[in-house]
Amino acid sequence: MGSADIIPGVSGGTIALITGIYEKLIEAIKSIDLKIVLYFLKGFSNKKYFEKSKDKLLDIKYKFLITLVIGIAVAFLVLANILGWLLEAYPSYTYAFFFGLIISSAFLVYKSSKNPINIKTLFFLLVGVLSGYLIVGLQTIQTDHSIFIIFIAGIITFCAMILPGLSGAFILLILGQYDFMLNVLRGITHFDFSSISFAFAYILGGIIGLIAFSQVLSFLLKNYRVVTLSFIIGLMIGALRKPGELINQNPENIYITVISVIIGIFIVYLVGSYEYKLKKTT
Predict the structure, then answer these.
(1) CB 85: neighbour CB atoms within 10 A?
(2) Percent helix / strand / coil, the chain, rounded to 5
(3) What whole-number distance in Å separates Cα of residue 121 and Cα of residue 228?
């Protein structure tokens, strides 16, 4: 997920779907209740709220979240420079690989969701396709790089990160903050902490956005699962516009480009097969 979230046009939420952890991820984020802070502050006037705050803290799915966050952080720190180089040196092959990942994962999500094909699912699928297509076609907004703007960017992009088909990095690009934040991240990997306040503002905004948005997604998946997954599949298909355009803008060897797409598809097939065998044995 961390690797995908660095790249504009590729969604970490898509990777969560491919690996079969998406709904578990939403529930884990939802387990972080902001009432913890409220109860803690109330505890100074009424000690019973300290206990309530403690209970809420113990409800958080630490094992899952800590493991995931460490994985994402390692990917961010290790791959910020590698992916930056790949996108500069081999943009077509890199985006072709992710094109293969996305298109095959959309099929995998449809297959695993067992959604019936009817007017309702087709409608939400088309709404998703149109939404994804239009969003990734937005132009960059020119904004400054203040702490507040980076904080707001964190809220918006982290929400996009957990929506399959919507790339948090691409939303950051639209907001005019991608190059700036990538340089902040690269600086940290080279032990330059002069801009670390921006990293903290971005992460804080992201955490707040994730916690709030996970409540909405959890509600939709529990109460409107079929139409929500139909919309998500459509979103993934519509978002293929971005890697498709970037491949077209950076024409390279057509055979290697096609091979890169096939490799992406094959990796999703392997992950899907592994997930199926895992479910069968448990």
Answers:
(1) 12
(2) 80, 0, 20
(3) 9
Cβ–Cβ contacts within 10 Å for residue 30, how many? 19
pTM equals: 0.65
Contact yes or no for 162/26 (Cβ under 8 A): yes
Q: Distance (Å, rounded) from C-alpha 28 to C-alpha 59? A: 10
Residue 254 CA: distances (Å) to CA of 40, 45, 86, 207 = 59, 69, 17, 41
Domain enclosing residue 40, as ranges = 2-281
Domain total of the chain: 1
Contact 244, 96 (CB under 8 A): no
In the DSSP assignment, the letter for residue 224 is S
> What would the pLDDT profile of 235-268 be if each residue is shown by its tens digit?
878 878 877 887 888 778 888 889 988 988 887 7
**Euclidean distance between CA atoms 111 and 157, whole angstroms:** 28
Place of tokens 């978002």: 239
pLDDT, tens digit, 9 for 90 and up, residues 36-61: 778 888 888 887 878 888 888 888 88
